[in-house]
């Protein structure tokens, strides 16, 4: 407990048996009318009876959960199986995994000085034997209770529920068709000062000497063997350590380690894909997110999270991270590394300091999204489901002889506890939710089981019959797939992986913006990626992603290239007219178009600026016709200006305004199809426009509205040819995707949405996926090597794995072609079925 904690409030509630029963009915009768899928609605419900005055007023509706003291505290038992390969017989590995403590809850830690060092609910009895709070507690936790003695323990039912169903989902899925000869137990015991001891029911033992904080343990399967995946924090070295120990022999290799800057809170879980995910909040207030991939730590992202974080918990089912912040309350974040770096405060009360948080892990109930948190300032627990957040009192009834005595003495102060950690678990049958909490004052550990009606309501989401999904992502997908069949084809998403990433830009924040591909006609493999650092530079990269050149020319936002531009406009039709390649960038430092010459090596030299009349120049694109470069530039108001560029023999540049028009709101991306004389213009929040370039007097026509599954903003636009068909690629920034539109050559103003493409991480190459793309470019040119079928380049708004400043990702044209073919084939199959 910190000295800065807010004022304590001791919760006192009078509970009767009749009130308990009626409260259950009242709670879920009322909750059925609540829709709390948004954070605002959730926040509106979190003030349900969690101050003393509120509890007095809501006395008849409050629910109290009687506590049972765990005589042996929390110990960890894992189960594994030996199996024979009988191909004609099927067994269910899933049903045999009874006593594995929840991964999310095991990460919730930091009860008190002794408890803090041993990190929460998986701490062994030996470690807690050093607790100074209670001599009796010390005496009862000296050794790890055997499997047989636990079976005879009076609190076995609570213990069983506490440790149910936490083996890796993938491991169980891979074993459903195997027959198991026997089930064996592994006991894990952590002593803060000595180390970690493991023993199994086959008589094998293993000891890891040191001073550790226990974080996570699972039994997982690999290569037809079962292993203990053990995650600890080494308090002596400040390393996170991951052990892989053979479940049968208890033999293991040296751990894989990750150096940290200390640990204020650490949690881990195994995802539904079998990936070990680890989150550590270090002493600098930085959240570090890792994945243990192919036997090594893969740094996914890190960012400042601030002080006050006491514990964390991960819900792998919903990709959600919960943080207990003693100063603010409970935060919720998305663990998807391509998600926006935003945290939502889902609970706050100035009178309580939240220190423990947990989530419920389930392999028997799909999509469970239940979390809980506790404070030493309140003898109770807050339970959060998708449709409600509710406070439940916790009453220590360990010394009461019967239920009547417990109810009569419920107002006695001695019946209240001061919890600093919580652990949630599900019964083996998947029907009952139980919890375990500590008492900071006594050092005791207690369990409680939720009433069956409450468990059923939470697990079956009966509190709101309209809620069918457990996260905003799932809600979106469900909504998308309930559209009519004519639009469902557009919901198909094909995933590709990046092949190369460029060096990060120099400037932090939203800096990288728009790329352009310059194809070297003399040596294709020496082609360049030209990209803007909109906070001060125009950069170029080779096809390996290495920075080649950086020109500090100002706040250039968008860039495009043109080939074989005449040096002198008056000699444009003469065969001996010098021709050069150019790059043009919109420069927000002076509302101009900056023009650069590109020599045969790809080296850029600035030629000058073309002034515009735009108020705040933003996006641009260009095309070359008859040796003359024509540039479309726009500003943030929606205004477009078209300039023809002239280059004098001395390489000075000038521009002539030839056309102007406006879109209703802010545009940025544009691209020109010279084969059909059509310009495609992106209005970020609305959709795509087409402009016929055959005359200067034509006005743009709106041709494609932003609608599901495409999400604003539409910023980058580019054209790509696949199997003699032209496709328009548009960034769908809101869902980190790219909309693929088929362009009808005979009618270029008709776009047909084929579906989406996403760029996901290549973890083997340690290249992250792509999110929030601004600009993009693509070419069909053969650039050699992996880019013989072209190249697609996109800006990455969140460059992670590890976290760095923004950059650009390169995708082989072959991958993009394959993705588009899949979308086209799927569309043809749907049409043939009609």
Describe the protein in words.
- The chain has about 850 residues and is mainly β.
- Helix content is about 15%, strand content about 40%.
- It is built from 15 helices and 49 strands.
- The strands form 11 sheets. Strands 18-19-20-21-1-24-23-22 form an 8-stranded mixed sheet.
- The chain starts with 16 loop residues before the first helix and ends with a helix.
- About 50% of the residues are buried.
- Residues about 1-60, about 85-180, about 400-410 and about 465-490 have low confidence and may be disordered.
State the shape: elongated
Q: Which percent range fits the helix content?
A: 10-25%
Largest sheet, if any?
8 strands, mixed
Radius of gyration: 31 Å
In DSSP terms (H or I, runs of 4 or more residues), the helix count works out at 15
The helix-and-strand class reads mainly beta
Distance between the termini: 66 Å
Short overview:
The chain has 834 residues and is mainly beta.
Keywords:
single chain; 834 residues; mainly beta; eight-stranded mixed β-sheet; five-stranded mixed β-sheet; elongated
Structural topology:
Elements: H1 17-31, H2 39-45, H3 52-57, E1 64-69, E2 76-84, H4 103-106, H5 113-118, H6 125-128, H7 135-139, H8 147-152, H9 156-162, H10 169-173, E3 179-191, E4 195-200, E5 205-209, E6 212-222, E7 225-234, E8 239-246, E9 256-259, E10 265-270, E11 276-281, E12 286-293, E13 296-304, E14 309-315, E15 320-325, E16 329-334, E17 344-347, E18 356-359, E19 371-375, E20 378-385, E21 388-396, H11 403-408, E22 422-426, E23 433-438, E24 445-449, H12 452-460, H13 472-481, H14 485-488, E25 493-496, E26 500-501, E27 512-518, E28 528-533, E29 537-541, E30 547-551, E31 556-566, E32 579-587, E33 592-598, E34 604-611, E35 617-625, E36 628-635, E37 639-647, E38 653-662, E39 667-673, E40 678-683, E41 687-692, E42 701-705, E43 717-722, E44 725-732, E45 737-743, E46 751-759, E47 776-779, E48 791-796, E49 807-812, H15 813-833
Parallel strand pairs: 1-21, 25-46
Antiparallel strand pairs: 1-24, 2-3, 3-4, 4-5, 6-7, 7-8, 8-9, 10-11, 11-12, 12-13, 14-15, 15-16, 16-17, 18-19, 19-20, 20-21, 22-23, 23-24, 26-49, 27-28, 28-29, 29-30, 31-32, 32-33, 33-34, 35-36, 36-37, 37-38, 39-40, 40-41, 41-42, 43-44, 44-45, 45-46, 47-48, 48-49
